[in-house]
Design goal:
Elements lengths: L4 E3 L2 E5 L2 H4 L6 E6 L13 H4 L15 H9 L1 E7 L12 E5 L12 E6 L6 E4 L2 H4 L1 H4 L8 H11 L7 E4 L6 H8 L3 E6 L2 H11 L8
Parallel strand pairs: 2-9, 3-4, 3-8, 5-7, 8-9
Antiparallel strand pairs: 1-2, 4-6, 5-6
Helix pairs in contact: 6-7
Length: 211
């Protein structure tokens, strides 16, 4: 399949991951944030309410279990956000994103959990997206903060160097942007073209030195 975007080791495919995954080689790390089935597409995020209504059902159901197993099997290691919503293998390693004081007492989760396939102790990162201003610039309803996704890569790297990272539910491309910032290669797959375009624009920005 012809890539939607390809530059300096970062590739985006526009399409259904069920059709694209079989043609991909196994990667070092799968890092992804699939639909949890909590209706995020219909949450009260004003600018998304004006989108085409037929597109707002993308999170009506959690991703299919068979598909998720196929996704996880594509990586030597895997980190799946929302892992507590899915039937995955038992693991003692979860990465927990503590959203900080901005979410205390609100009708939102105060933290989110990512299931990890490798054996390690669980870790917590505190990062308040409201205080940091991330929520003012997010371009996808469930977009993870970039520092959180870079942290995920660094945690996976404690056991192995993840040179190639795959995100089959790419959204606005935060996983790919984190990979680029850290000097990794990456592959993203996204069903909706407008998010492929957003991701490509984010990847065109310069890389900053995080050392």
């Amino acid at each position: 399949m012809e890539p939607y975007y390809e530059h300096n080791g970062i590739t985006i495919y526009h399409g259904d991951c069920r059709e694209i995954l079989p043609g991909l080689e196994k990667v070092d790390l799968v890092l992804t944030d699939p639909p949890y089935g909590i209706g995020a597409g219909r949450m009260s995020l004003g600018k998304w309410k004006t989108s085409r209504m037929r597109k707002l059902d993308w999170d009506a159901h959690p991703v299919d279990s068979d598909l998720l197993r196929d996704v996880v099997s594509k990586g030597n290691r895997a980190c799946v956000w929302g892992g507590n919503y899915f039937q995955l293998e038992p693991s003692r390693c979860f990465l927990v994103w503590d959203k900080g004081n901005g979410f205390r007492g609100r009708d939102f989760s105060e933290c989110e959990q990512a299931w990890c396939s490798w054996d390690a102790v669980s870790r917590i990162k505190s990062y308040d997206p409201l205080a940091s201003g991330d929520y003012k610039t997010k371009q996808h309803p469930t977009q993870k903060p970039l520092p959180v996704m870079r942290w995920c890569v660094s945690q996976a790297d404690r056991k192995a160097v993840n040179e190639t990272i795959l995100d089959p539910f790419m959204g606005s491309g935060t996983t790919l942007r984190a990979a680029k910032d850290l000097g990794r290669q990456a592959i993203g797959i996204e069903l909706e073209e407008k998010y492929c375009e957003i991701a490509a624009k984010r990847l065109a920005q310069e890389v900053f030195d995080f050392d």
